[in-house]
Amino acid sequence: MSPYEKLLIQNKAWSSDQKLADANFFGRLEKQQSPKFLWIGCSDSRVPANQITGTDPGEIFVHRNIANMVVHTDLNLLSVLEYAVVVLKVEHIIVCGHYGCGGIDAALGNKSYGIINKWLLNIKEVYNIHKKEIDAIEVHEDKVNKLVELNVIEQCQDLIKTSTIQKAWKSRNAPTIHGWAYGLKDGLVKELVNIEPDLESINPIFRFDSSELEK
């Protein structure tokens, strides 16, 4: 049996188990999607949002990319953000990085990875901001994990620079933004930052005019 065939068999088993445990599970899932959370996480296969948080399908709206980045030229991320905030009206956004992240590790080096280099540049910029602090760390693994944390915090800051978030903060005083780091070794989440809606807290250069937020 190939790994692909195994996936199909496991899907049938999972579907059967869900129906046995709750006959109405798929009926409810089909009729509505009303998650309270948007998850911006790493594409790493070891960091699945639902399993980490113990939630069911339908409870978390998910976007994943290498190193959980919020890049202002990424139309994929911006479209997910707009839909989650404006249409689904999520109450919380979680940016979740993970210790030992391969993307973060690669960004700390000088090896070329082809087209991936363009993505890693965004992480390198975060490193450059915190270069003195990170370079003072002797153990490479600890350097990576510190940048994991600092990167999450920076991505949360990049979220509040978007007009999508600022409009939502003005109109409905939500969502709250949370920064997490997930430990592969123990499965636990470390809370790094929580940002409550507050337009005045945004650096003025990144704050849109109030009249613009009403459009």
UniProtKB/TrEMBL annotation:
SUPFAM superfamilies listed in its UniProt record: beta-carbonic anhydrase, cab
Alphabetical list of InterPro entries matching this protein: Carbonic_anhydrase (IPR001765), Carbonic_anhydrase_CS (IPR015892), Carbonic_anhydrase_sf (IPR036874)
Broad EC category: lyase
Keyword check for Transmembrane: no
Transmembrane segments: none
KW Zinc (keyword) present: yes
Pfam family, any one: Pro_CA
Gene3D superfamilies according to UniProt: Carbonic anhydrase
EC number(s) reported in the record: 4.2.1.1
Binding annotation for Zn(2+): 42, 44, 98, 101
Catalytic activity: hydrogencarbonate + H(+) = CO2 + H2O
GO biological process: carbon utilization
Co-factor binding details: Binds 1 zinc ion per subunit.
Cofactor names: Zn(2+)
Keywords from the UniProt entry: Lyase, Metal-binding, Zinc
CDD domains, per database record: beta_CA_cladeA
Family membership noted in the UniProt record: Belongs to the beta-class carbonic anhydrase family.
UniProt-listed PANTHER family: CARBONIC ANHYDRASE
Record's function text: Reversible hydration of carbon dioxide.
Name used for this protein in its record: Carbonic anhydrase
